[in-house]
Amino acid sequence: MDKNITDITGTWPLANGVEIPYLGLGVWQAEDGAEVQQAVKWALEAGYRHIDTASIYKNEEGVGQAIRESGVPREDVFITSKVWNTDQGYDATLRAFDASLDRLGLETLDLYLIHWPVAGKSQDTWRALEKLYADGRVRAIGVSNFLQHHLEELLTTATVKPMVNQLEFHPWLVQPELQAYCRQHGIQYQAWSPLMQGKIFEQDIVNDLAKKYGKSPAQILVRWDLQRGVVTIPKSVKQAHIVSNAAVFDFELTEAELTYIDGLDRHERLGPDPDIFPK
Fold first, then answer.
1. Annotation says 57 is catalytic
2. Bind-site residues
3. H-helix or E-strand spanning residue 218
4. Binding site feature residues for substrate
5. Where is this site: Lowers pKa of active site Tyr (predicted)?
6. Of the residues 57, 112, 133, 189, which is catalytic?
7. What strands, in cross-sheet order, belong to the sheet with 78-83?
8. CATH number of 11-262
9. 247: nearest Cα among 47, 19, 71, 1
10. DSSP reduced 3-state for 164
11. Domain boundaries, the chain
């Protein structure tokens, strides 16, 4: 990948020119209130400028509160949320977006995603996202957990292509063909569960590289993501981990090392399969 990687505040342009910070904090499973507020504040203090939440996480209020109290200007923080499956459809999505904004205490979002493909609804949901985008209420729109056939179906009726596809991504689930398809269509690949929910420590090569570079296995994987051109949002509510996950800008993996990690792919999901979830 020839995308420039500089520091924790670095960004890559989406297809519409909006700059997305390539490293962010995910807040899935962070409890609303003190836990998520503290995590977001620690991240912003450490230099993160990208926070990823969703309506189903039920912590949008805490995220918004933390951003307001952080002292970091709103325009300097890239905030993502997502419409949940039971809120899909045109009118329901517009209502869900308003509700997310209310909970976050914001006037606009930087990125709004369809959380999962829902048969018979995702195209109408996408029309709602296109309206929100056209109305200037969100700076970029995209999808999450969409495989190639989901994207192909969406593109038969879309007037705006998704700018982001957020997917489970780690050495056991690389999906190079899907990555290539997204690149072909100008869709930025983004990783959730990049640290393999703790299974990272089962990978000898990752542990060996951690020793070589004096880094943690988590830092090796975050760096791999970035050098492969994948926006990544590791989640944590622990300050040490939040700070450590971002300490990846003082070393570089070789192409041979990147390729070796690619080769760990076993097409194995740690999360749900988009083809069977939700039923």
1. yes
2. 115
3. helix 217-227
4. 115
5. 82
6. 57
7. 25-26, 50-52, 78-83, 111-114, 141-144, 164-168, 188-192, 231-232
8. 3.20.20.100
9. 47
10. strand
11. 11-262
